[in-house]
Design brief:
By secondary structure, the chain is α+β, with helices and mostly antiparallel strands. The chain is built from three helices and two strands. Helix 1 packs across helix 3 and helix 2 crosses helix 3.
Length: 82
């Protein structure tokens, strides 16, 4: 069964069906940022992103690690009591 899914993140509209490649993967800063946005803000799984770009889930995981290394993604944890 094909499941169509759509997501809108930071002004980007994505709509795809499982098993359908809709994005061409080109490793550059813009693509890394889009993948990080889809994962962290769009809450898509690494598997969904891998299917969108026609790459492996392991490649998505490595890309997310690169995003942290290149400071495309930075985390801020505020653990001060209110």
């Amino acid at each position: 069964m094909q499941v169509q899914r759509g997501v809108s993140v930071d002004g980007w509209q994505f709509s795809f069906e499982r098993g359908q490649r809709v994005m061409i993967f080109e490793e550059n800063r813009e693509t890394l940022g889009k993948i990080a946005t889809l994962y962290y803000l769009g809450e898509l799984s690494q598997e969904d992103i891998a299917e969108m770009y026609g790459i492996s889930r392991f490649k998505v995981s490595r890309i997310l690690k690169k995003c942290r290394e290149y400071h495309i993604v930075e985390f801020h944890i505020n653990n001060k009591p209110e």
